[in-house]
Amino acid sequence: MTSIVRVFVDTNVLIYASVLSSPYVDIARNKLVALRDSGSELWISR
Known about the structure:
46 residues
């Protein structure tokens, strides 16, 4: 049985990943891509 890993992604990570001048842009993008590629279910607050 395969279990789905659910990961809460803080809004700041999304901002860092989308602002090219952020010093964290590469780290944030790489982490989001790794989570997506691992099949994790990504959750955000609304």
